[in-house]
Amino acid sequence: MPNPSRRDFLKRTAAVGALAALPGSARAATKRRSRPVAIATWKNRGALEAAWNVLVSGGYALDAVEAGLHIPEADPNDHSVGLGGRPDRDGRVTLDSCIMDERHRCGSVAAIEDILHPVSVARKVMEETPHVMLVGDGARQFALEQGFERTNLLTEQSEQEWREWIETNDYLPAINNERRDWPDDNHDTCGMIAIDSEGRLSGACTTSGWAYKLRGRVGDSPIIGAGLFVDGEIGAATATGHGEEMIRTAAAHTIVERMRGGLAPQEACQQAVEHLRRVTPTDPATIQAGLLALDEKGDFGGFALQRGFTYVVALPDSEREPSVKGEITGRVAVRGGTIYVVEAPYLLG
Length: 349
Ligand code: SD4
Prior knowledge:
Elements: H1 4-21, H2 24-29, E1 37-41, H3 45-56, H4 61-74, E2 95-100, E3 106-112, H5 118-128, E4 133-135, H6 136-145, H7 156-168, E5 190-195, E6 201-207, E7 228-231, E8 235-241, H8 243-248, H9 251-260, H10 265-279, E9 289-295, E10 300-304, E11 310-316, E12 327-334, E13 337-343
Parallel strand pairs: 3-4
Antiparallel strand pairs: 1-5, 1-11, 2-3, 2-6, 5-6, 7-8, 8-9, 9-10, 11-13, 12-13
This protein binds N-hydroxy-L-asparagine (SD4).
N-hydroxy-L-asparagine is lined by residues 80, 177, 188-189, 207, 209-210, 219-221, 240-243.
């Protein structure tokens, strides 16, 4: 007769083995309950509130980030995302977006035109195709086949500003946003990561990218691992700023790997910025990188290369005033929680 301790050991290892054999989704599903948390780049408050409403209703983090990003995508006054986004130098609005769930499932569209909600096309790429990324005309064709409508995204205002820009032909974006004229209310590229009450992590990004970019330029926002990365067992990260820098350092993936190594989200963001500054061939004084992270416990952090990176985070009512690195400059009560506006700490003065 086997001795009891050996029997226990066998039972235990069998259970662990069965768990390891489960696909990631089932593994995550057996895991935990969590407090919901959502965090987004810039003052994307409306987007965050839409996402939060899904989370406090017990919804799925993936649905939350998608619903959140629909807000800036449809807002003609947000000149860095979707409708009303600034065009490329040829006057065409081209959009980049991606989405990723807790099971390493992801979808992405780059340089897509005429479609109001690229994040939802990215989700369709994830759910309806064996691919991860579609670009340009192919992405639009896929979207139209999926029933998305063709929409003219170039608003009168954006067109007028582009025509004025042609006169100066100045390529360089401002450090903190493409909207030099509205610095107090920037909501710029929207990167959002969230964890729901079942402990499922997801994230998404949406942008019209670098204003007046070369036709065909793609930034970090649709690149899995650069503008966004999610590992359901570890955490999630997203980025904003000069996309070329996030691509060359695989910024979001770097952050998640540092969290896997044991760093808290705040420290992981800071180290990723320090690394970026060390390795970039670009003059660091001319670029911005704003990074956000969230781990599987719901802890979060943000860090930037330069002053001026604002982010928003939604936390449940039960939360004490959160201890954040950086300065809380605003708070708004929302259903079942509070949205805090935070000025992220930064590396360069
Ligand atoms: C890009 N990272 O296309 C985006 C731009 C951005 O706030 O984040 N702007 O490079």
